[in-house]
Amino acid sequence: MNMNHSDDLRDLMNNETSDLSKARLRAWLQILKVSRKIEGELREKMRIEFGSTLPRFDVLAALYRERDGMRMSELSKSLMVSNGNVTGIVDRLVGEGMLVRVPVENDRRASIVRLTEAGEKDFAERALVHEGWVSELFSDLSASDADGLIRILRTISHHNEAPHD
Amino acid sequence: MNMNHSDDLRDLMNNETSDLSKARLRAWLQILKVSRKIEGELREKMRIEFGSTLPRFDVLAALYRERDGMRMSELSKSLMVSNGNVTGIVDRLVGEGMLVRVPVENDRRASIVRLTEAGEKDFAERALVHEGWVSELFSDLSASDADGLIRILRTISHHNEAPHD
DNA sequence: CACAGATATTTCAAACTCAAAATATTTATG
DNA sequence: CATAAATATTTTGAGTTTGAAATATCTGTG
Q1: CB contact under 8 A, A131 and B21
Q2: HTH marR-type domain: from which residue to which, for each copy (chains A, B) (predicted)?
Q3: Do B43 and B53 meet the contact criterion of CB atoms below 8 Å apart?
């Protein structure tokens, strides 16, 4: 049973916070805890097994889904990180020979970033290993709990979706 | 229904990954997505409303729960970040007058970090505002979904708990 | 007591991250 | 066409983060 708008308003006016508000805070703290723990584990595995980092993996993953490449701005929006952030990571991946920057016809401001053949091959292998790590870290998560988790998280995502153009 | 050990083993040997493994990966990516979006929102609010940052809030929150103060190592373990990281953040918070370092009797290696009176007062106010922000960001999350979310995330946490001493 | 190993913390270099400013280019408007 | 506004990206400065090395101190064993 969801709260309606006037309930929310009453909550905001109220000095002491409601039980629901506290439950939501606990939920957020638990999300944060799991997220940090799993990220820490994955970071260490990437460092040891791949000699690489999580942010680089994320960039490669995004470009593996979009084989024709993406613009810097698309990349940063898709990863939900700042524009300037992506610049540095892409620079390093270009240096490692995983990515190339391709100029865009008719728009000399922009460039498309895409995987090199080597980058594509490397990532394909890494993605399988990565999925195995995640499945192992989540091995107590049943199929139905995975679905439940995804459903609940989506309701949160959608509420906080970026406003339409 | 959970997988047993030999199912996991078969999965590892198997080149193609299972549906369950893919569901777990999707769950992880959704956790990551929500976690990033909410962190971004909170970061911005903290910057604008408090002129402060998320990591500083986290340190203050931990010390607000432990009024007698914590050692640097306890702090970094509790926040799941590296030791060296906490040093820098505590340095800044000491500079802002929110924290003090107190020497530990009988152990000159260690020091206890605790809130100053001003730090305690400031944080108490901020914590209420923060809880309101979270509740607003999670306003589509019902009480039962909050509980469900917490339950599922705890099973993941527990599996990945640090091994006992 | 000597001193090897353990423990607590800081320092360090490299990478990541953000927000804002700067740069370059394109588009729209008069 | 001139040029203001919009767009795409990079640069910059400050802060955060990590993992490893350095420093200081403590503890247990002989």
Answers
A1: yes
A2: 24-158
A3: yes
pLDDT, tens digit, 9 for 90 and up, residues A20-70: 999 999 999 999 999 999 999 999 999 999 999 999 999 999 999 999 999
CB of B94 within 7 Å of some strand D atom: no
Q: Which residue is nearest to nucleotide C23 (CA to C1')?
A: A109
Chain A contact set for B145 (CB, 8 A): 152, 155
- Name the nt closest to A40 by C-alpha to C1': D18
Residue B117 lies in a domain: yes
Is B157 part of any domain? no
Beta strand ranges found along B22-131 (DSSP E): 70-71, 99-104, 107-115
CB B63 within 8 A of CB B114: yes
Residue–nucleotide distance: B71 CA to C8 C1' (Å): 9
Amino acid in the structure at residue A112? I
* Closest CB to A35 among B11, B35, B40: B35
Range of the domain at A103: 53-142
Kindly calculate the radius of gyration of chain A based on its CA atoms and give it in whole angstroms.
Answer: 20
Scanning residues 4 through 43 of protein chain A, those with a beta carbon under 7 Å from any atom of strand D turn out to be: 40, 43
**Token representation of residue B25:** 């990966």
Instruction: Answer whether residue B164 shows pLDDT above 50.
Output: no
Backbone φ/ψ region at A16: left (φ over 0), alpha (ψ -120 to 50), beta? beta
Select from A13, A16, A31 the residue whose CB has the most chain B CBs within 10 Å, as the one to mutate to test that interface.
Answer: A31
| Distance of alpha carbon B71 from alpha carbon B91, whole angstroms | 14
- Which has the minimum average pLDDT: A95-104, A137-146, B8-17? B8-17
What CATH number is associated with residue A72? 1.10.10.10
Q: pLDDT of B12-60, one tens digit each?
A: 555 457 899 999 999 999 999 999 999 999 999 999 999 999 999 999 9
Proximity of residue B107 CB to strand D below 7 A: yes
Residue B47 lies in a domain: yes
